[in-house]
Amino acid sequence: MTSYLKPFIILSSLFCIVSCKSQTIIVDTQEKNSVIINDTTFVNLKEYSQDFEYDMKYATDDNFLKSKVYDCAECFLRLKTVTALVEANSKFMEKGYKIKIFDCYRPLDIQKKMWKIVSNPKYVANPAKGSIHNRGGAVDITLVDRNGKELDMGTSFDFFGEEASHNYPNVSEEVKQNRILLKNIMTTTGFNSFDSEWWHYNLKLGLNDAVSNVKWECK
Ligand SMILES: [Zn+2]
């Protein structure tokens, strides 16, 4: 070793004792930033807000299929859907309500599983076409009050009959107002309603995204 390098090496070692820990942190941050997240990336809603209630029906057998089709209950959506949903929830919270989630993004394989159980396009979207749920742009939701009690929407989630339609006239004034409350805020925050299902909303900007089969990890 040439002698003129020695002081430099000693100095570098000293510097490392002081600063190597923070260097490691900087590397970690750089690694995180290298994961590119854009509007269409699938993200987990709970990592963006803790203000939602959940009752993920298809992760249980308490659904019209009488079958648990998800291995675990997680609400994944494209980032732009999450952004709009968080904004809608904050508007509901100003009025004393919160969104309760029944279903979010549904990987295509899950759609196929559901189609196998009930092969009727009246109840389950045909996986050959795919649905907005398979594109990460749809949510099935209701509202709860400050005590976590669901508002009366007239029918249960996934009730397949005309009573579940926004246009069904023979509902009580309370049910009518509850559905209007849900619909008004959702449709003014970037979502479309679906006439025959009071619980279903699609992000208007999500209609052209590709059907996906990305799956989340169950811990
Ligand atoms: Zn739906």
CATH architecture of the largest domain: 2-Layer Sandwich
* Helix and strand element order: HEEEHEHHEHEE
Mean pLDDT: 87
What is the CATH topology classification name of the largest domain?
Answer: Muramoyl-pentapeptide Carboxypeptidase, domain 2
Distance N to C terminus:
52 Å
Structural class: alpha+beta
Residue stretches low in confidence (pLDDT < 50, at least 5 long) are 1-31
Describe this structure in words.
- Its EC number is 3.4.13.22.
- One of its GO terms (molecular function) is zinc ion binding.
- Zn(2+) binds at residues 133, 140, 200.
- Belongs to the peptidase M15D family.
- Catalyzes hydrolysis of the D-alanyl-D-alanine dipeptide.
- The protein has 219 residues and is α+β, with helices and mostly antiparallel strands.
- The chain folds into two domains: 3-33; 42-206, Muramoyl-pentapeptide Carboxypeptidase, domain 2 (2-Layer Sandwich), CATH 3.30.1380.
- Helices cover 33% and strands 15% of the residues.
- The strands form two sheets. A five-stranded mixed β-sheet has the order 2-4-5-7-6.
- The longest helix has 28 residues, at 6-33.
- The radius of gyration is 24 Å and the shape is globular.
- The protein starts with 5 loop residues before the first helix and ends in a 16-residue tail after the last strand.
- Residues 1-31 have low confidence and may be disordered.
- Zinc ion (ZN) binds at residues 103, 133, 138, 140, 200.
